[in-house]
Amino acid sequence: MKPHLVIVGGVAAGPKMAAKARRMDPDIPITLVTDEGIISYAACGTPYYLGRVFEDRKKLLVREAEDFGRKNGVTMLTGHRATRIDAAAHTLEIVDLAGGGTRTLEYSKLGLATGARPLMPPIEGLDAPGVFTLRSVTDAFAIDDFIEQYNVRRAVVAGAGFIGLEMVENLRERGMAVTLIELLPQVLPPVDEVVAVAAVKELEQMGADVLLATRVEGLERDERRVTGVLTSRGPVPAELVIMGVGVRPNSELAGEAGLELGLRNTIRVNQRMQTSDPDIYAAGDCAEQTQIVTGEPTWIPLGSTANKQGRVAAVNMAGGNDCFPGVVGTALVRVGGLNIGRTGLQQRDLERLGAERYESCLVPQNDIPGYMPGSAALTLVLHAEKDTRRVVGAQCFGAGEVSKRIDVLATAITAGMTTEQVASLDLGYAPPYAPAMDIVITAANVMGNKLDEATRGVMPGELCRTCTPETVLLDCREPHEWAQGRIAGARLIPLAQIPERAGELPADRPVVVYCKGGLRSADAYRKLKCAGLKDVRYLDGGITCWMGETEG
Amino acid sequence: MKPHLVIVGGVAAGPKMAAKARRMDPDIPITLVTDEGIISYAACGTPYYLGRVFEDRKKLLVREAEDFGRKNGVTMLTGHRATRIDAAAHTLEIVDLAGGGTRTLEYSKLGLATGARPLMPPIEGLDAPGVFTLRSVTDAFAIDDFIEQYNVRRAVVAGAGFIGLEMVENLRERGMAVTLIELLPQVLPPVDEVVAVAAVKELEQMGADVLLATRVEGLERDERRVTGVLTSRGPVPAELVIMGVGVRPNSELAGEAGLELGLRNTIRVNQRMQTSDPDIYAAGDCAEQTQIVTGEPTWIPLGSTANKQGRVAAVNMAGGNDCFPGVVGTALVRVGGLNIGRTGLQQRDLERLGAERYESCLVPQNDIPGYMPGSAALTLVLHAEKDTRRVVGAQCFGAGEVSKRIDVLATAITAGMTTEQVASLDLGYAPPYAPAMDIVITAANVMGNKLDEATRGVMPGELCRTCTPETVLLDCREPHEWAQGRIAGARLIPLAQIPERAGELPADRPVVVYCKGGLRSADAYRKLKCAGLKDVRYLDGGITCWMGETEG
């Protein structure tokens, strides 16, 4: 077999494979095939282009195909679709989308970076002008042209995933009325309820309409273009509809060649990014991943992962040896003034794996010292495994700096750090950047207390679901805080008065004590236990993170 | 022995010890002794108060002593100095600084959080009005009053450590002419030369005078107050002098009691924060630390560490069990528009431990994608151990977001992660926060190539020192970049022309190839090796990070 690398895909993992393979081996012939006319574009930047955060389309185009090919010594076959792999013969059949001609390329190693494509709900009218998906820059330019051409004032975004939320923000920035429609009862399925509730508040604050638990059932159009969306809650007028209900991997080429497929029809790969055929590699959005925390297969298609996988695949295709261990599922999204991040396992995962094995906590704290201008609120959710005390998941949201805390916790989770190891991390401290005790340290300390059973908390979502008229809600703040608003049905005993007044509480009923953010109520928990009360918990995150009814 | 916790020190570790011990044990008597009148203040915020970043003095006072004592059930002895420990008798002698009376407190466990105090150079005139150290909020208020009273327009800061640089920034903010005087040939001893050079550029850009390798030899005064600083380079006029040449631990009390002292006269402690006397604990700026990377003793007094140590000491003093493993030496500082951070080992450490065992790299890259507004430059230095491939140190500087990268690397270094583990970290990716390949990932990849000997680099500082007329400096950028400025004495061969033109280079002389930031020159390195050149290196960080002469 004459050495010849053939790579299918031109966005992230494909060009990365080609460029890295060339750096590994100056002589080997490399051919890159892509059915698009352009390569290597900044797909994740498209919502911000549409929001006019920047105006120059060219900024989305990272590399020009011909230039990339010349500089890297790669034969560029843009506008060609790969149609069939003959794994035994080591050949790839490709079709010229312009001319229609078919050719066969021989390969010694084949790299698949075929990406993913938008899922579409099984409804009619998807072909109406004004109905778009947003996956490539070509899509973005078409949406932009459509908005300009028709001076669109009213849009619907279907699907409240990361890109859906980015689109709501950016279409609002562009001055449109926007309705977000989501089939599930919460936005952002990859985060816990408490985070999703904060996102909805922010979406509404920026003037978007949010319809949860709502099914898109069809599209209305006039003779020219889309006019509305039919939903399970009635019609919603729309001049522009962005369908963002999810993606699926482009794995048909691999599947038809007999390569093993994995979770959600991704192409199964080992840590060397090798498929079930040792001469075929896959990387990027088409390839299966491993969740490092559980060792289970997962699939979180992201450009960051695609680049890393493409590099590892290239090293191995060129005769080297490199591994991609997997992901922890880190993701960030900005929604107006709210920063949101997540990493590792979430509540839903814990329930699947056995909720009793895990502990959670919820801690609000500012990102930098309160005396510094710009100091802003954060809330951090941690999940830890009781047996090992390992931190297994984290989510953070707020107007403050979220991404640092999430990246630190992603690193700690990847390293398998325990709650105590996180609590003693030597994180940078200087007033412009962080307080002496960063929220990451504070939250790990709170988690440690819970794991030690020095305190016992209840997450706000759980309390909402399990609170009965029996439950005594005890506010331990000061009277002036109480006067400004409290959880509906709560009674007041300020922290300092708890030792002498605990007898006022019915000893046979469950007590949940709360304060502003959780600090005083954890203290109150101890005092109530000392006073002999049996069934006491404190409310994680206090009234700051409370999602239920308030009064006063 | 009747249980009674006595704690000495009221700033960070002391109050933390008292509050945590109380949460651990609701009944044990706790007494806190401090020679100051106030407790628990935000010492690190003082430079920003002096720069009028915020105006309200009260914001620096975190807790009021009486209130703290009442809420936590702690007997507060402010204005009392601890003068003698009788370890055998388990007693502490204290003096009332107001009344002068002496008392003896019995303790079952004693916690020392005696802090540190400014070092003073052995010169005359330190008692002149207008000469200050900055350690406590009391110092800050005195400086502030002095500035107001005399309408100070001209200040000298002696000592270019973190606080020295913060003071330069803030006194400039307040409109003063500022001269920074440093004995060493670089500012910020805890960072490598390339970072220190960037800091000096920024200090000069904000209008400060920087005198390096300059000794403060005396102070001039008139009948009322200080008028100038005498230095090894001549006199510098000054109406205000801030002495920030370092600190030393307050360990005399411990030393006189026979407790074992450690590095730089800190109080030696084990991981439980226990001194050589099992009933005496120490925490905060007076206590020795362990550098996690090397296992060696270190001493980096910081409020963040003090809080963690205080908590651990309290748990153990109250009968629990907790450990503080040490620090990696993370520190952040803002200098005008420049963010600077460091963690782990630095070049000086590597030289002490054996430079040949380590590899370094230097990578410039923007913090968020270039198409996003606010995208700003960063430069990242990594140090790794060749044998284990562990990342052992990192420094980052630039107008971009530094603190996230430093905290991620502090976490990775603490976990003992290899270069490859860092390169595959699942860091958050979304355009407002990070590019698809974060600078941390890019730098780890660059380091991997060096460790594999796929490339061979030279750090700019090393090239400055070792470059001879023999050395061929090769610029591999495009002619239009060359025309805008180049390293003095360099010659130009654009990257694409290297294969056919490598023969123009003298085969027997060392070649150092450079580009803008290091990416193309690493490629050029490979092409030059392919062309048969023997002694080739590329310049880490390219002309972007070059500290020597340029021309054109």
Characterise this structure.
Two copies of one chain form a homodimer. Chain A has 552 residues and is α/β, with parallel strands linked by helices. Chain A has four domains: 5-42 and 52-115 and 248-317, FAD/NAD(P)-binding domain (3-Layer(bba) Sandwich); 131-245, FAD/NAD(P)-binding domain (3-Layer(bba) Sandwich), CATH 3.50.50; 337-451, FAD/NAD(P)-binding domain (3-Layer(bba) Sandwich), CATH 3.50.50.60; 457-551, Rhodanese-like domain (Oxidized Rhodanese, domain 1), CATH 3.40.250. The first copy, chain A, has 16 helices and 32 strands. In chain A, the strands form nine sheets. The first copy, chain A, has a five-stranded parallel β-sheet with strand order 3-2-1-7-18. Chain A is globular. At the A-B interface, helix 8, strand 21, strand 22, helix 10 and helix 11 of A face helix 8, strand 23, strand 24, helix 10 and helix 11 of B.
Describe the main β-sheet of chain A briefly.
5 strands, parallel
Structural class of chain A: alpha/beta
What is the CATH superfamily of the largest domain in chain A? FAD/NAD(P)-binding domain
CATH architecture of the largest domain in chain A: 3-Layer(bba) Sandwich
- Sheet-strand content of chain A, in percent, reads 25-35%
Percent range of helical residues of chain A: 25-40%
**Pair of chains with the largest interface and how many residues each contributes:** A-B, 87 and 87 residues
| Integer tally of domains of chain A | 4
- What value does the Rg of chain A take, in angstroms? 27 Å
What is the number of beta strands of chain A?
Answer: 32
The unreliable regions of chain A are: none
Number of helical regions of chain A: 16
Which descriptor suits the 3D outline of chain A?
globular
Task: Give, in spatial order, the strands making up the sheet with the most strands of chain A.
Answer: 3-2-1-7-18
